[in-house]
Structure formats: structure tokens, C-alpha cells
Specification:
The protein is mostly helical and about 220 residues long. It has a domain of about 150 residues. It has 9 helices and no strands.
């Protein structure tokens, strides 16, 4: 019942990942709209936004949602806000995030910091392909080989993890202090509009009641 009438091809699916149907501007506008309308305390929403943005600076590829949920529960942030904010890490921002985290991490660790983005993707793809093969090797006569996984860990994951701590914390604090006043002001303005609408309806009801009394 919830399937698409015309299923997307693999190429279309990949294309939508890098460029949504309405464009990234519309996607960002939709996320901002959803954040504004969340029925929760502005501080909790802002904490959720901070968590979602900070998580994008970790090399936990594919686990950002679960990490955001876990940290949001720990610091009592809004879980939905944290999930929405993880879209801060997208195909447009990811190259800049990855380059920054790897550079900082390699500088801290004292390792070469001239790793191109293409090597990150190739190392991730090779490690991802090697893991299921090694799991299947446990049930066959094949020999498990972890060289590509270790290379990814040594060249990408560990420097990325170390280098993403400071930028992630900084970006999270920036996200909090930017989103909190905006969400707070939006909720106050919305409450005022709701109150004015209620007062107008109440006044209209009183006028109708007075008209009925006058007719009687």
C-alpha cells in the first residue's frame, strides 16, 4: 500500500541521495520547518540539534541515527530534532567534514595528512566488502583476511574519530546557540498567534450571543 506507483531505478535512487527531488534548499527548508514545529521545550530541541550536528563529525558511517538517539537520551535532548539534524552531514557537506576531521586527526596523531577524499571512499568500500566475506569464511574453508579492514581503521577511521572530536563539539555548540533563540522566538510568536486567534473566536462568540439576546 505504501509502495511507489513507479519504483525508482538504482541510478535514480543514487541520484536522489546526492540531489533530492526538490533540491537541497527545499530539503533544508523542510527540516527547519519540522524543527520549529516540534512540541517540546526549546532547550531540549536545541540540545537535539546540537547532538545531530556533532554526530556528523564521527566516522560511524550508517550509525549516525542510532548514535544521535543514544546521546540524546543521555543528555535529555529531543530525539526527533537530533535525527533531523543528522542531515547536516550530506553529500554536499561530507567532503568538507571528512577533510577537516582527517586533517585534524592526522595532525594530532602525527601521521601523514594528505589523504584524498577518493581514498576514504575506496577504503570504506573495500572494508565493507571484506567484512561479510570474512563472516562467511567462518562457515567455509576460506581464510579470513582483515587487511583492508585494518587499513581502513588505521588510515581513515582512527584519525577521523580523533580529529572529529573538537570540530564536532564546536559545531554542536554553534548549532545549539544558533537554534535555541530561533526556535524559542518561533514558539513564542506561534503562541501569540494562537492566543490572538482564540481571543478573536471568543469575541466573535460573545458578539453572536449578544446579537441573539438582542433579538430575543
Amino acid at each position: 500500500m505504501f509502495k511507489r506507483r513507479n519504483p525508482l531505478t538504482w541510478l535514480q535512487t543514487i541520484g536522489r541521495f546526492f540531489w533530492p527531488k526538490g533540491g537541497w534548499r527545499r530539503a533544508a527548508s523542510y527540516i527547519a520547518h519540522r524543527l520549529h514545529r516540534l512540541p517540546d521545550n526549546p532547550k531540549k530541541i536545541a540540545r537535539g540539534v546540537a547532538v545531530g550536528v556533532a554526530v556528523c563529525f564521527t566516522p560511524l558511517f550508517g550509525l549516525h541515527f542510532f548514535t544521535a538517539i543514544f546521546i540524546s537520551i543521555l543528555i535529555r535532548g529531543n530525539i526527533v530534532a537530533s535525527l533531523l539534524a543528522t542531515f547536516f552531514g550530506n553529500p554536499i557537506t561530507f567532503p568538507f567534514i571528512a577533510a577537516t576531521c582527517l586533517y585534524v586527526g592526522n595532525v594530532i596523531l602525527g601521521t601523514p595528512h594528505d589523504i584524498p577524499i577518493s581514498e576514504i571512499f575506496s577504503a570504506l568500500g573495500a572494508a565493507t566488502a571484506e567484512i561479510p566475506r570474512n563472516i562467511m569464511a567462518m562457515f567455509t574453508d576460506d581464510v579470513a583476511r582483515w587487511g583492508k579492514v585494518w587499513r581502513f581503521y588505521d588510515r581513515v577511521f582512527w584519525p577521523y574519530l580523533i580529529g572529529g572530536i573538537l570540530p564536532g563539539i564546536f559545531a554542536g555548540f554553534c548549532a545549539y546557540f544558533v537554534s535555541y533563540p530561533i526556535i524559542s522566538a518561533y514558539q513564542k510568536r506561534r503562541r501569540k498567534k494562537t492566543q490572538k486567534r482564540f481571543e478573536a473566536m471568543h469575541t466573535q462568540a460573545e458578539n453572536m450571543a449578544d446579537d441573539d439576546n438582542n433579538k430575543l
